[in-house]
Specification:
single chain, 134 residues, alpha/beta, 5 strands, globular
């Protein structure tokens, strides 16, 4: 299953996609102003072009696991996506993904590297859950 992960920010949204096997995450170009008409259209196009079957949006919880000021914005963005996409949208804890993106570095934008770390964590959780069910 191909999954598109988003590290939401009102100015810029980092993006990463999984390979078809669901094992690797690759950063993509970020989408500017993702809540604008143009930004939402770009995200819809990405879902279609990549044949993504699910979208995972990073949920910026505080270090204690509680909602922060940005948490509400991310939830609202995910709801907007749900209404405009034909694939499921879910939220996933994104604590430490930006810090990991800073530490690891790379040529992709920091926002998209953070989205790739978010996606790697989501894929690992999914693989662990599937192995436990087997």
């Amino acid at each position: 299953m191909r999954v598109l992960a988003l590290d939401y920010g009102s100015a810029r949204c980092g993006c990463a996609v999984s390979d078809p096997t669901g094992e690797l995450a690759t950063p993509l170009e970020p989408v500017l102003r993702p809540r604008s008409r143009r930004g939402l259209a770009r995200l819809r196009t990405l879902v279609d072009e990549l044949r993504a079957e699910r979208v995972v949006v990073g949920l910026p919880l505080s270090l204690s696991g509680r909602d922060s000021a940005q948490t509400g914005e991310a939830r609202a963005f995910a709801q907007t996506l749900e209404r405009s996409l034909a694939v499921p949208v879910e939220l996933c804890d994104e604590r430490f993904t930006t810090r990991l993106a800073e530490q690891v570095g790379g040529r992709a934008s920091e926002d998209s590297r953070a989205a790739a770390h978010l996606l790697e964590g989501w894929l690992a959780q999914r693989a662990t859950a599937e192995a436990a069910r087997a």
